[in-house]
Amino acid sequence: xxxxxxxxxxxxxxxxxxxxxxxxxxxxxxxxxxxxxxxxxxxxxxxxxxxxxxxxxxxxxxxxxxxxxxxxxxxxxxxxxxxxxxxxxxxxxxxxxxxxxxxxxxxxxxxxxxxxxxxxxxxxxxxxxxxxxxxxxxxxxxxxxxxxxxxxxxxxxxxxxxxxxxxxxxxxxxxxxxxxxxxxxxxxxxxxxxxxxxxxxxxxxxxxxxxxxxxxxxxxxxxxxxxxxxxxxxxxxxxxxxxxxxxxxxxxxxxxxxxxxxxxxxxxxxxxxxxxxxxxxxxxxxxxxxxxxxxxxxxxxxxxxxxxxxxxxxxxxxxxxxxxxxxxxxxxxxxxxxxxxxxxxxxxxxxxxxxxxxxxxxxxxxxxxxxxxxxxxxxxxxxxxxxxxxxxxxxxxxxxxxxxxxxxxxxxxxxxxxxxxxxxxxxxxxxxxxx
Length: 435
Known about the structure:
Elements: E1 13-18, E2 25-27, E3 30-32, E4 38-42, E5 45-49, H1 56-67, H2 69-76, H3 84-96, E6 111-112, E7 114-121, E8 132-138, E9 145-146, H4 148-158, H5 163-168, E10 173-176, H6 181-186, H7 201-218, H8 228-241, E11 243-246, E12 256-259, E13 264-266, H9 272-292, E14 304-308, H10 316-331, E15 335-340, H11 343-354, E16 379-385, E17 388-391, H12 401-404, H13 406-424
């Protein structure tokens, strides 16, 4: 693999996007000149920040696809789809469109010329025989080209008796999509919608995970998680969201929302921020139980939680608490990758990283508690925009604050442009009713 990823830190996996085309290739919004790869290095905490349609989610979905590929092969392919090329094509297509037999919506539509994805698991390997993979996708045809190692791996796995069951445990990843509020909207009204095969596999898997969570939460004594770590998350989140999702002990075993004052509402009556955040909280609290029970691997960083925009519809103070919960997971051996539009989250992330430089015994009401202080070598942040990917965290673990202030500068510049324009207008242009 080519390309420079800089100081490797606590690197878990590497993904490089390149081309063999003589002309510039495109993958979604990304431009890939020949001989110049777009390198991605994932660490225990990996963050993608950038404007809309810049490719953040596309990159995160690719990382999820490669890391979880053996699991996805067992979970989302039919018997007639286990031939290597067919299986890879089906799974790539279902990342974004679900099981729709419309070739105009295939994954190859993201590609102009040809694009090659080279993946390597650097450490914390869950599948010993699956540490590297290479896939080349062409714009002119739907069938990808696989590296011999990947093709041989698929063939070797799928001829074994009971191969699906072997690859389904332990689970390597969970993907929490940006559209997660759809679960709250349809769960009690039209639950069959949640398992439509036309949904992208990330959304279907998300629904499966929350159904398993519903069963597990019913077993909690007095509604309290059965691990101290899960309880820590639940208590922080309850204060953050002014309530919690729960399963009543009597009556139908469906998700409800309970306010901090004790009022019970149908889940779809919760606020938009609560509906966006509660699945993240429930899953985060249950990760510790699932790891204890063997659903997830007990080895550090062999599991990744992928979250699209964890800050959605949250007040800035709630965003801080959400980031602390994410940091808590990372410090307990769970890898987390998330996308964000929020410069605020990056300022807060800098604070958690900088606080790691002090002794754990140094604590007060201002400093982040030791459980959420992040080691700089565990964090990597990328800015995704203008057809490229750029690392914006330096070797000491400091995120470039000028990059974070760009949105603020745009807003300030616009404010002063409007003020200057108002001052230049003749007096008769002003609304006399305005203050």
